[in-house]
Write a structure and sequence with these properties.
With about 170 residues, the chain is of the alpha+beta class. It has a single domain, classed as Roll (Nuclear Transport Factor 2, Chain: A), CATH 3.10.450. The protein is built from four helices and five strands. Strand 1 and strand 2 form a beta hairpin. The longest helix is centred in the N-terminal third of the chain and has 21 residues.
Length: about 170
């Protein structure tokens, strides 16, 4: 495990990235694309840039969903070089707000059950911060049950293919 100060910095940078993600979808173009590399890296950054480019290119009616929630974050599974880790985000009070992308008008709010997401974080020397590099998975409800936890393990190497892909 990494020092407490590193774990705390991962939590701070992760929560800052989550706040930025919530706000970025409704910011004026091209600000979200310009600021994305501050908070995101790798696969997650490329996916975000792809989505935002699609939104900008559309002239027709388009909706944006913004997930807002309370976060309780655990940092786990640091790599040997301490430059990669896993964040487990326990999300409560989850709600998905749907907006008209062009007018930024809120159209609907859907209240969702609590959830848990797992992200890969990487440290960026140039930016001197931790960045979200990949969404690993959303854990099913009840995963924290002790009988289930005994059967779970953290795999330190992230496979390039899983499930039916291999």
């Amino acid at each position: 495990m990494a020092p407490d100060s590193t774990v705390e910095q991962v939590q701070i940078d992760y929560l800052a990235a989550m706040e930025w993600l919530q706000d970025s979808l409704l910011q004026a173009w091209p600000r979200p694309l310009a600021s994305a590399p501050i908070y995101l890296a790798g696969q997650y950054l490329r996916h975000y840039q792809h989505i935002m480019t699609q939104y900008q290119g559309r002239r027709s009616y388009c909706f944006v969903g913004v997930l807002r929630c309370d976060h309780q974050v655990q940092v786990k599974a640091f790599a040997d070089d301490r430059r990669t880790c896993v964040v487990i985000d326990f999300q409560t009070q989850r709600r998905m707000a749907t907006y008209d992308y062009q007018t930024r008008e809120r159209l609907h709010t859907q209240y969702l059950p609590d959830g848990v997401t797992v992200y890969k974080m990487v440290y960026d020397d140039r930016g001197a911060r931790w960045k979200i590099a990949a969404l690993i998975q959303e854990l099913p409800l009840g995963w924290e049950n002790k009988s289930v936890l005994q059967e779970m393990s953290v795999i330190p190497d992230f496979p390039t293919t899983i499930g039916r892909d291999n």
